[in-house]
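USER:
Working in pairs, take the chain set out below, taking as long as you need, and write a paragraph about the fold.
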Amino acid sequence: MKILITAAGSYGDVAPYTGVGARLRAAGHDVALATHDTYAPLVRAADLEFRRLPADPRTERPEGYRSPDASPGSKSPDASPGSKRALMHKAAAFIQKLGGGMAEATTDDTELLLLSTTTAPLGRHLAEAYGIPSLDLSLQPNAPTGDFAPPVSGGRSLGRWGNRAAGRLSLRIVDRLYGDATRDLRARLGLPPSSPRTVRRRADAAGRPVLHGFSEVLVPRPADWRSGLDVVGNWWPWLAQEAQLPPAVQDFLAAGPPPVFIGFGSMAAGEGERLSGLAVRALRRAKVRGVLQSGWAGLTTKAAENAAADDILTVGEVPHALLFPRMSAVVHHCGAGTAAAGLRAGVPTVPVPVTADQPFWAARLAALGAATSPLPFKALYGDGAEARLAEAITQATAAPAHHERATDAARRIASEDGTGEVVKAVDALTGQGGPGKQPADGRGQGEVG
């Protein structure tokens, strides 16, 4: 079967689908992955066909946009006036380009669409136009539930009624973001006009299947979700069986006790010099060795004062699956993929959430006991930032309970096969006539916004 996977966003939004694609290819399917040029090497390394999607989120920002993480040079992480509006503008512009790119990536011989969280609201129109099945593969639990508020809302529970209401509101905000892109895409495809909300509600009422690529170790499946919304376990980025850490990293690890990892992924762009100095000082205050992953922030010991020593190493893109098991703790922004990678490695986490769904995953790790209390990114500003980070690192590396909980979680995650569940779902979906088939027990109707 010719399968097209579409994924857009940062590394963590794309890399897990290389593992999914490779598993489907091994099962005999012809798989293409459409994403941004930045990730073409990841796709081709997994022996998948690469198809280009425009609007790389790392390089394309609206005029005058300032990061909502922090205002460069400021003493606090408060966003500049109007930055939320700028962020919404950026998202809408990104989605607008994405719709046209997905249409170009979908060829006439495509037989099945696998859609990420970001691409699903657009991919449903493509599936309708081509008359082919689609399957949503989500990395976040976005369906309304009383168990928790939407992940993007910050992780604080609003009570069961409030959580469900916030979940419905979150879906409507997404519908609004995709409104213009939906109108243009449907016109391009020759489909009658229809709003994102109408299409979404119709798909939910039909019982469309959605697989969620995270572990129930962190987020048990809500009992109030409708039939067809399943949590199957993590999808890990593809990694060659013979892959090894670079020699310089292996030498560093062999030269002393396990270090502490610090990295912020796609967060904190432009703050490398400040964060590098803070990280080095905190590591030394905690009396531990460290590994800084440069990421979009550009962390490096070269930007830190008095860092010319052999106790801290800077690395670039090193697979977390190889690096994290060699750490004594990991300090990161708690994106969904990085949070799962730390748990999979069985090492404690110091969560430093910045935005979006990161506080949600940070809170989940802490509730599990595999992490310290979350240290919000804003705590890395001002007087005492170094002490706060050093104290959290000490707690993570010295408290036996964190190690025990992380080790237990790793054991449970190791028994899951998330990509295998995708293969099963693809086989069942194509064998039963597509996602529009109503479940036999009639439970396809669910609460939607």
